[in-house]
Amino acid sequence: MILFTGHGDIASHFSKKYLCEVQSLRNKSIAELENLLPGYDVVIHNAANLKPQNVAEAVNDNFILTKNIIDTLGRVNAGAKFIYLSSMSMLKNENEYLDPLQMTPYAFSKYLGELYTLACSIKNTAAVRFSTIFYENPAKDGLSNLLNTALQQGNITTINNGTAKRDFIPLEILTRYLYKLCTLGNGTQRIYNVCSGTATSFADVVNLLKLRLPNLVVENNQLENATDVLCDFSTTGLQSIGVEAFDLSDYINTYLNKLSTP
Questions:
Q1: Residue segments in the chain with a per-residue pLDDT below the cut of 70
Q2: 18, 171, 210, 254 - which has most CB atoms within 10 Å?
């Protein structure tokens, strides 16, 4: 049985496809963890405070929880697989960390959790980082919000002519990769960058939208200090579990069809 340690879009979508349980472990005592964790073959640790106010809060809410789960699992169910949902926000590039002093409190807490996962006594562990997730939810990601705004209002605004790029990974594809990791054999401790391997600009998305919405009005804002987001990833590390090929435009059009349905 697979256990998610927190709720959220990933756990919710996964649970619709595969047999699993979702429980929030954020407020569980060590004794409660000791009673709970022996019942699972795979623990996917997704519980986290996504917006901690400072480093102390981030470490307490995210890293200490991760440490408690790993330490307890190692004592009561060391043969289980532990999958840590890490973050790309700690990275300088796909193979190199930022200087910890440059990390946000959230990124720093995920960095600590990743290091602890890879150094723990549990032999079957994975730290999984996702590129920019396409949730198909305007409240969750910029791509969904852009598509929804274009369809509902017929008018969108890009930043710097949409030159910013992202490596978009649809939630459905992400879920497939996560399930593959659940079924891997024992004895591995490694990092997986779950990505498409292709950088897509928002200008590319706008061009796709114009094919469907020829009267779409596109305005532009110029920002001198726009934040860059890491988008240059390779699928090489995913070849051992099988690369999931997909066409982002198909997922975009499917989402637009959903939005168009009354």
A1: 185-189
A2: 171
- CB of 226 within 8 A of CB of 160? yes
For residue 66, the surrounding DSSP H or E stretch is helix 64-76
Residue-wise pLDDT for 15-34, tens only, equals 999 999 999 999 999 999 99
| Helix spans in 102-220 (H) | 105-119, 142-153, 171-182, 202-212
Give the distance from CA 73 to its chain's centroid.
23
Q: Where are the beta strands (DSSP E) in the chain?
A: 2-4, 21-22, 42-45, 81-85, 91-93, 96-97, 125-130, 132-134, 155-159, 165-166, 168-170, 189-194, 200-201, 217-221
Contact 227, 163 (CB under 8 A): no
Rounded Cα–Cα distance for residues 136 and 28 (Å): 31
Strand-strand pairing, 81-85 and 91-93? unpaired
Mind listing the pLDDT tens digit for each residue in 128-143?
999 999 999 999 999 9
Quick one: pLDDT at residue 223?
87
Of 93, 63, 77, the closest CA to residue 1 belongs to 77
Kindly report the number of other CB atoms within 10 A of residue 226's CB atom.
Answer: 12
